[in-house]
């Protein structure tokens, strides 16, 4: 899936008609050069490629391009896959239906999803109970009918520069209507009800009455937690007014399944002097809208942005249990502490734990518990010492607390309350340099799946948020007169012959570290890694003592940077394979454009510790092709995700390994260590 920050230029000119009778509009989108060459190659091979889905919708709305997918008519699957392999790097994902992720296109920073038109049929309950079959001979109208909403059933022919609109999606966009494409099949996928919620809020659309009726009877109980929260996260992070979505969920009666912890809020009154807006539900909707306007600078910090929004949603969950009438007033003493339990219940329901190494669950609970602290500290400001604020900063992140407290203060319309206490608190924590807490390690087991690292990666972060190499302990001591030294490797001692005394150095091993689901995937199709976890009793400290070099692909490197990290530890060398970056050392890493074998042979000529191959999957495949992987560290979590990005992409010869270690940890994690068995 390709994402771009460039606002597309489109120019509707005139209307036309396809041979099938479907109306078309002239439309011109500026496509990246690599994508244009792709569609030209597909057309030359006899295919009919279309840009489909969200990118076309967003172009008509004047938004930056996103979800850039290509659907190819007229080419069988085998020919399509073969053709794509000549254009860029191809990874196949999905079991029910194969999507080809094509990367390496000029001007396209990520992967473009390429697929055939498909037929859907309901074969079982839930989101996954749908059989999908590719059919390159489908008509445009038939292929578009399987999509959820008319605004997502638009196609763009980039060679004819035509917008194809078989179901009136453009008209609905202009009318700001969200309408199901096919009412007869819409209900087959219950996730569509939650898609309707987040799309209506993101684009501020009115849901068509017939579509709303269908959404209200969807069996959402069939959906897995991660799918439900996937739509909730989009609602919270992408909508200017997420309250629209939550109001729809209440109106349609789906809150009892999706978020029953929110139900009592509508029945809980508040003191009108402090809350003229009304009950806690009304207040909460206003607060999440205010919070959405306070996370713009966190656009590249998804975990913290999500933490703020979840804390804003949950901040008053303790009021239903604590609210009482007292001396003619309505009070909720202790509601902040009482709100922790229902908050954790809701987060568990949505399977929210850590994200990109950040403890979202723990931070949300802490922010709920302490959301009144800025106001309390402000009242005591004349007698307040620095210690009180520093102690608070050890419990929760003050910068995020400021945002939640400010949203809480402002979410009381028609009343107007100035956030004086919150602004004082913000300035005070900045003066003490505790506004942002040192983050948790950026690369941990559940997150290194996407980066190709092993579970429990030892990469942490310094207080400025830079990626740092794991702590190393000296692995040598002075040997006796035989010229031998000792190296401690994962709890055992190896003999290292010292160069210069007639002996060869111990060969530096290449160790491939990976995390994986029980059914062999390192990530979901969209790259998310929410199913992975790192138990507290698991440590990779002994492994980190054996490495001094990290090797990764460019996408792994880009992902690490996007997570907020940096490189440059003086004790660890980092090499990044890239065809797009010029070779050389920059920003603490060395970019290389050579074969894996060439680099490893060069590294092995110099003394040092082992070499950690962090990933990603494509680079791991090349190492396995050249038989360069000496050991595997694989962490397996007891979760079946059904489809996703495979642990090892196909395309390398059989390789045999011997089991060295097999350890079981809490929560069912299994850590396996294998050594390459060569003839």
Can you describe this structure?
33% of the residues lie in helices and 20% in strands. It is α+β, with helices and mostly antiparallel strands. The protein has 4 domains: 15-182, Beta Polymerase, domain 2 (2-Layer Sandwich); 190-258, Hydrophobic Seed Protein (Orthogonal Bundle); 263-431, no CATH class; 445-676, Dihydrofolate Reductase, subunit A, CATH 3.40.430. A 9-stranded mixed β-sheet has the order 1-2-11-10-3-4-7-6-5. A hairpin with a 2-residue loop joins β14 (324-326) and β15 (329-331). α7 packs antiparallel against α10 (243-252). The longest helix has 14 residues, at 225-238.
Task: Please give a handful of descriptors for the protein shown.
alpha+beta, nine-stranded mixed β-sheet, 33% helix, 4 domains, 679 residues, 20% strand, Hydrophobic Seed Protein, Beta Polymerase, domain 2, disordered N terminus
**Counting H and I runs of at least 4 residues, what is the number of helices?**
26
Strand percentage lies at: 15-25%
**Major β-sheet profile:** 9 strands, mixed
Cα-to-Cα separation, first versus last residue: 42 Å
Query: Given the C-alpha coordinates, what overall shape results?
Result: globular
Instruction: Please give the share of residues in helix.
Output: 25-40%
Low-pLDDT stretches are 1-21, 438-505
- Across the major sheet, the strand order is 1-2-11-10-3-4-7-6-5
Q: Give the domain tally.
A: 4
| CATH T-level fold name of the largest domain | Dihydrofolate Reductase, subunit A
Gyration radius (Cα, Å) is 28 Å
Class computed from helices, strands and strand pairing: alpha+beta
Q: Mean pLDDT, as a whole number?
A: 82
User: How many strands in all?
Assistant: 33
CATH superfamily of the largest domain: Dihydrofolate Reductase, subunit A
């Amino acid at each position: 899936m390709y994402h771009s920050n460039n606002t597309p230029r489109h120019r509707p000119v005139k209307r036309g008609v396809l041979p099938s009778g479907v109306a078309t509009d002239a439309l011109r989108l500026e496509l990246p050069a690599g994508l244009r060459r792709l569609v030209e190659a597909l057309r030359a091979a006899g295919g009919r490629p279309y840009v489909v889905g969200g990118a076309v919708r967003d172009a008509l709305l004047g938004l930056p391009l996103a979800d850039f997918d290509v659907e190819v008519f007229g080419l069988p699957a085998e020919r399509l896959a073969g053709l794509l392999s000549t254009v860029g790097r191809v990874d196949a994902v999905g079991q029910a239906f194969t999507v080809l992720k094509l990367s390496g296109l000029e001007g396209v920073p990520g992967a473009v999803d390429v697929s055939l038109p498909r037929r859907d049929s309901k074969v079982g309950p839930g989101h996954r109970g749908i059989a999908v079959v590719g059919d390159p001979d489908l008509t445009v109208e038939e292929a578009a009918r399987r999509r959820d909403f008319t605004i997502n059933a638009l196609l763009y022919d980039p060679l004819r520069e035509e917008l194809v609109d078989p179901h009136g999606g453009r008209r609905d966009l202009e009318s700001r209507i969200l309408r199901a494409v096919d009412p007869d099949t819409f209900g087959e996928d219950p996730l569509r009800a939650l898609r309707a919620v987040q799309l209506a809020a993101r684009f501020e659309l009115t849901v068509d009455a017939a579509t709303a009726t269908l959404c209200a009877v969807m069996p959402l109980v069939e959906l897995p937690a991660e799918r439900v929260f996937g739509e909730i996260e989009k609602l919270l992070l992408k909508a200017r007014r997420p309250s629209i979505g939550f109001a729809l969920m209440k109106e349609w009666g789906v809150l009892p399944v999706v978020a029953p912890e929110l139900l009592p809020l509508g029945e809980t009154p508040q003191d009108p002097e402090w809350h003229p807006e009304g009950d806690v539900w009304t207040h909460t909707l206003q607060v999440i809208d205010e919070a959405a306007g306070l996370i713009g600078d966190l656009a590249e910090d998804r975990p913290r942005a999500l933490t703020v929004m979840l804390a804003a949603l949950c901040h008053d969950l303790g009021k239903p249990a604590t609210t009482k009438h007292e001396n003619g007033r309505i009070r909720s003493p202790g509601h902040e502490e009482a709100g922790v339990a229902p908050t954790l219940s809701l987060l568990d329901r949505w399977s929210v734990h850590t994200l990109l190494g950040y403890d979202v669950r723990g931070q949300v609970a802490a922010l709920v518990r302490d959301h009144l602290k800025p106001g309390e500290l402000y009242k005591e400001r004349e007698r307040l010492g620095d210690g009180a604020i520093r102690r608070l900063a050890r419990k929760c992140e003050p910068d995020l607390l400021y945002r939640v407290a400010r949203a809480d203060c402002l979410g009381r319309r028609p009343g107007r309350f100035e956030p004086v206490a919150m602004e004082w608190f913000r300035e005070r924590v900045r003066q003490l340099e505790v506004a942002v807490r040192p983050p948790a390690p950026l690369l941990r087991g559940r997150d290194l799946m996407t980066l190709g690292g092993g579970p429990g990666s030892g990469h942490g972060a310094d207080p400025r948020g830079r990626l740092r190499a794991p702590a190393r302990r000296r692995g040598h001591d002075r040997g006796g007169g035989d010229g031998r030294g000792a190296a401690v490797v994962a709890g055992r001692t190896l003999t290292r012959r010292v160069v210069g005394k007639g002996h060869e150095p111990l060969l530096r091993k290449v160790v491939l570290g990976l995390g994986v689901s029980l059914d062999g995937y390192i990530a979901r199709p969209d790259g998310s890694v929410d199913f992975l976890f790192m138990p507290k009793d698991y440590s990779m400290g002994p492994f980190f003592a054996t490495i001094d070099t990290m090797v990764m692909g460019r996408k792994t490197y880009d992902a690490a940077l996007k997570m907020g990290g940096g490189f440059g530890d003086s004790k660890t060398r980092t090499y990044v394979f890239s065809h797009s970056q010029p070779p050389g050392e920059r920003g603490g890493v060395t970019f290389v454009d050579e074969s894996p074998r060439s680099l490893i042979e060069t590294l092995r000529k110099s003394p040092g510790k082992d070499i950690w191959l962090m990933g990603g999957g494509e680079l791991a495949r090349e190492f396995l092709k050249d038989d360069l992987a000496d050991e595997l560290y694989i962490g397996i979590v007891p979760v079946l995700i059904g489809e996703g990005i495979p642990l090892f992409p196909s395309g390398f010869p059989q390789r045999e390994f011997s089991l060295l270690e097999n350890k079981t940890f809490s929560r069912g994690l299994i850590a396996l260590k294998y050594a390459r068995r060569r003839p």
